[in-house]
Amino acid sequence: xxxxxxxxxxxxxxxxxxxxxxxxxxxxxxxxxxxxxxxxxxxxxxxxxxxxxxxxxxxxxxxxxxxxxxxxxxxxxxxxxxxxxxxxxxxxxxxxxxxxxxxxxxxxxxxxxxxxxxxxxxxxxxxxxxxxxxxxxxxxxxxxxxxxxxxxxxxxxxxxxxxxxxxxxxxxxxxxxxxxxxxxxxxxxxxxxxxxxxxxxxxxxxxxxxxxxxxxxxxxxxxxxxxxxxxxxxxxxxxxxxxxxxxxxxxxxxxxxxxxxxxxxxxxxxxxxxxxxxxxxxxxxxxxx
Length: 289
Prior knowledge:
Layout: H1 2-21, E1 24-37, E2 43-47, E3 49-60, E4 65-82, E5 86-92, E6 98-106, E7 108-126, E8 131-162, E9 167-169, E10 179-187, E11 194-208, E12 211-222, E13 265-277, E14 281-283, E15 286-288
Antiparallel strand pairs: 1-3, 1-13, 2-4, 3-4, 4-7, 5-6, 6-8, 7-8, 8-9, 8-10, 8-11, 11-12, 12-13, 14-15
C-alpha cells in the first residue's frame, strides 16, 4: 500500500510539473475543405466543407520555440459522383445458373461523412513582439468514428446477362431485375486510424498581457490508407444481388468496393483562429512572447 501511495504521489508531482511548464492553454476553431481524398474509376471525388474545434497546451523551449499538443474534434466529408456506367458481378440465380449481374446508374452521388478525434504534436517557431509571425510543423493522429455514406441516384437499373443464350433480362422483380427512380440509400463503413503531416502558419496579436489571438491557415496531409481492405470482397458490386427484392441497406458505399484506384487519405486545409491564454515566457529575467 505504501508503495502504491508513493507511486501515485510521484505521478501527481510529475503531471503537475508538466502542466506548470505548459505556460499556454489555447482554444481553436477552423473551417475548410476536409475529408477523404482518392481517385476513382469512372467518376470524380471532391472534398467538402468541414470544421474542427479543440484545446491545446504549449510548452516553451525558449523565446522562439515551443512544443504544442492537445485534443481536437472535427467533421470531415467528401462527395463522389459516378458517370452513367455499368458495374457488374458474377452471381447465381434461384435456378442455380451463373449470370452477370449488371448495375446501371444515372446521376450517382455519394456523400461520405465522419467525425474524428485528433491529437497534434507540433513544433512552433514564433517571432517576438506584440504582433508575431508563427509557423507550426509536425503531425496529427486522427481517430475516426461515426462514418455515414448517403447515396442518391436519378435512376438505378438492375439487370441480368446470361452469356450462354446472349440475353439480358430486364424488369423481372421475382428474379431480382428491377428499375428504381430517385433511389436513396445509406451505408456505414469502418475507417482506419489516420496519420498526417500538419502545418499551420500566420500572425498572432496581443490582446492583453495574457491573451493572444492567432489567425492563419492550416493543412493536414494524410500518410496512410483509411480504407479497410478487409471490407472489400473480390468483384463486389455496388448493390448485393437479391431475387427477393431490394432495400437501402443492401447498397455498398464506394469505400467498400474496389472502384478506388489509389489510397484513401485524409486531406484538410483552410483557415484557423486560436486564442491562447497564459503568462508570457520568462527566461533570464526577461518577460516576453
